Amino acid sequence: MESILSIENVSKYFGGKAAVEQFSLSVGEGEIFGLLGPNGAGKTTLIKMIVGHLRVDSGSIMVCGHAIGQEFEAAMSSVGAIVENPAHYLYMSGYENLKLTSMLHTDVERGRIREVIEQTGLQSRIHDKVKRYSLGMRQRLALAQTILHRPKLLVLDEPTNGLDPAGIKDLREILQNLAREGMTVVVSSHILSEMSLLCTRIGIMRSGRLVADSSAQALQRSQYGKIRLRVGQPGEAVQILESQFTDIAVEVQEDVLLVGGDALDSGQLNRMLVLNDVDVYEVGEQKETLEDAFMELTGGGGIA
Ligand SMILES: Nc1ncnc2c1ncn2[C@@H]1O[C@H](COP(=O)(O)OP(=O)(O)OP(=O)(O)O)[C@@H](O)[C@H]1O
């Protein structure tokens, strides 16, 4: 997969304190990458560096093969971003706002305005004054303005802030459609449930670092799921499992073992124990949700 965004060892300090530290990430075409983390984790700082609003102190960021530090304009021509609250001319219509934005670009072809209006579902209200728009519609208008020049990379900082559930769903569908057409999306949030529905991949940020990076599905499934076994001889069982399987973690709670690790199979664990004369009374899975995983990895705090 072609790398649209490539971040290598990026750090940013404010007054000697790291807001982003040794951060590396590569995001490929058509991915919707969710940057999730509690308040103060460094999400906005990272996003501002990706969209060229802040300079990196060390490391490098490339967009579509262009390094922001050396080829700023080439890199930025592929980026569309909504970072601060978007400002519109409220007394003008949505259409007039779009027309004005199109004049800022040299390469917006005929018909493109119509196209972005359709992509953002604003057809029926596009000639109304923006002051009559709901927050969700203003957000969609901002998105339409942002994608006019066909950016390869769309970057949104907390785009669902203040939106109602219907607005969040609309935005999700629009972004997923854009990604299907090949646009790459990077979006930040501290709201886990929204991210797991929207994103194809989620990175968890804590204290300026990436502490987990996984497909949303994988995070929800095996990586943080544990197998629960109630056994007759817990001490022996731990020894057997640890000697037979690499990369597993076994927790013991009296006669219950909680076994974590990648690609574990409860049948396989059960067979191994029984063949080694350990009595197994119960086998089950202890599911951890994405939320549990998040809490474990970030130490909790600050999520909705
Ligand atoms: N301009 C600045 N000057 C000084 N410190 C800053 C500045 N911008 C951010 N910070 C600090 O850097 C750290 C990361 O902040 P950042 O806003 O990037 O986090 P965030 O994950 O986006 O949080 P939030 O969800 O609250 O926006 C925080 O400790 C913050 O106080």
UniProtKB/TrEMBL annotation:
<keyword id="KW-0547">Nucleotide-binding</keyword>
<dbReference type="GO" id="GO:0005524">
    <property type="term" value="F:ATP binding"/>
</dbReference>
<feature type="domain" description="ABC transporter">
    <location>
        <begin position="5"/>
        <end position="232"/>
    </location>
</feature>
<comment type="similarity">
    <text>Belongs to the ABC transporter superfamily.</text>
</comment>
<protein>
    <submittedName>
        <fullName>ABC transporter ATP-binding protein</fullName>
    </submittedName>
</protein>
<keyword id="KW-0813">Transport</keyword>
<dbReference type="GO" id="GO:0016887">
    <property type="term" value="F:ATP hydrolysis activity"/>
</dbReference>
<dbReference type="InterPro" id="IPR017871">
    <property type="entry name" value="ABC_transporter-like_CS"/>
</dbReference>
<dbReference type="InterPro" id="IPR027417">
    <property type="entry name" value="P-loop_NTPase"/>
</dbReference>
<dbReference type="InterPro" id="IPR003439">
    <property type="entry name" value="ABC_transporter-like_ATP-bd"/>
</dbReference>
<keyword id="KW-0067">ATP-binding</keyword>
<dbReference type="InterPro" id="IPR003593">
    <property type="entry name" value="AAA+_ATPase"/>
</dbReference>
<dbReference type="Pfam" id="PF00005">
    <property type="entry name" value="ABC_tran"/>
</dbReference>
